[in-house]
């Protein structure tokens, strides 16, 4: 009987951890997407302006190169911000567990 109760408690704890992991990953995706949009805008404006105004850029940066510049910045921003958001959420959760376990002890 005690083994069954322990298994139920551990399954409940596992479900709770899984739900928290899903929530943290969703927060990371949303924050990363926002950062990618901002990076795309911040990169597209000077890239497109330089292609129109600078002779070197007009001669050497075709549409593929322009898209590559913009998408690289957007991709980098997405992964950096999403990773930092997930890690910050996990860190915040681990500190909450430490403080609650110290209060109970």
Automatic annotation (TrEMBL):
<keyword id="KW-1133">Transmembrane helix</keyword>
<keyword id="KW-0472">Membrane</keyword>
<dbReference type="Pfam" id="PF03386">
    <property type="entry name" value="ENOD93"/>
</dbReference>
<feature type="transmembrane region" description="Helical">
    <location>
        <begin position="29"/>
        <end position="51"/>
    </location>
</feature>
<dbReference type="InterPro" id="IPR005050">
    <property type="entry name" value="Enod93"/>
</dbReference>
<keyword id="KW-0812">Transmembrane</keyword>
<protein>
    <submittedName>
        <fullName>Early nodulin 93 ENOD93 protein</fullName>
    </submittedName>
</protein>
<feature type="transmembrane region" description="Helical">
    <location>
        <begin position="63"/>
        <end position="82"/>
    </location>
</feature>
């Amino acid at each position: 009987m005690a083994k069954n109760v322990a298994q139920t408690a551990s399954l409940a704890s596992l479900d709770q951890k899984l739900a928290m992991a899903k929530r943290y990953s969703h927060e990371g995706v949303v924050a990363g997407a926002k950062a990618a949009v901002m990076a795309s805008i911040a990169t597209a404006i000077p890239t497109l302006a330089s292609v129109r105004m600078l002779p070197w850029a007009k001669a050497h940066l075709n549409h593929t190169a322009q898209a590559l510049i913009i998408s690289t910045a957007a991709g980098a921003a997405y992964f950096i911000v999403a990773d930092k958001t997930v890690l910050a959420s996990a860190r915040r959760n681990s500190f909450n567990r430490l403080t609650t376990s110290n209060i109970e002890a």
